[in-house]
Amino acid sequence: MRIGLLAGSGKLPAEFLKSARSKGYQTVLFAIQGITDKDIYSVADKVYEIKPFKLGKFLSFLKKERLSEIAILGKVEHKEALSFKNLDFKAVTFMLKLKDKRAEGIIGGIIEEIENVGVEVINPERFLSHILPEKGVICGKITSDIEKDITFGFKMAKEIATLDIGQTVVVKNGIVIAVEGIEGTDKCIERAGELAGEGFVVCKAARKKQDMRIDVPTVGINTLETIARYGGKALCIEAGKTYIPEIENFKEVARKKGLTVIAV
């Protein structure tokens, strides 16, 4: 059995490769130069390194490998793609014909290009179910103030995620402090901390009709550290639709930082 992975940055691609290997798969990694963490190269059975946004080169390598399945995981900065910097001819024509250049539209378009060469883009959940938390308190305890902000903030996060604006909303005392845009979760939290000071709550949600192949919410240790550094008190994520790479380390860091983490 063989499976491919188109990997961006972050810890999620490594989790996928390790899980696929444990299930008996040979893995082919399509790494993006300067974006994919080089530490994961050794986890894959075969590696192709592609310069950023060379879509034509990637598709030619994919055809060469004759894979039946591939997953797409990890982060690539949306703003870099929209700058048209370093795009090859295939990528430029791809971007120009896209009617919707939000994250879901871009990744959905890439999926279509991949499937046009006969490779199925899979839902990677079967390899990553162990890092999808169930409903409940992951760490810390829920106070009445935190519960109120979570109830309010998660509803707001769900709406902006469905509009494909971002996935994160930061709230404090029933007021929206910051909404994630193109800058990403951690920058959104930093902005909220600077505006509101200590005591805020971070809520992150999936789209109402989340395609688990596309831009699934992910939180990691860096996010916890950012929340703690700016004085936040809680993180709320969506159960069953948010990946937590290195989940045991994540829980330990949350405990040490005194943060409450809940999946709803």
From TrEMBL:
Residues 2-130 form the LpxI N-terminal domain. InterPro entries: LpxI, LpxI_C, LpxI_C_sf, LpxI_N. Residues 136-262 form the LpxI C-terminal domain. PANTHER family: BLL4848 PROTEIN (PTHR39962), LPXI FAMILY PROTEIN (PTHR39962:SF1). This is UDP-2,3-diacylglucosamine pyrophosphatase. It comes from Desulfurobacterium atlanticum.
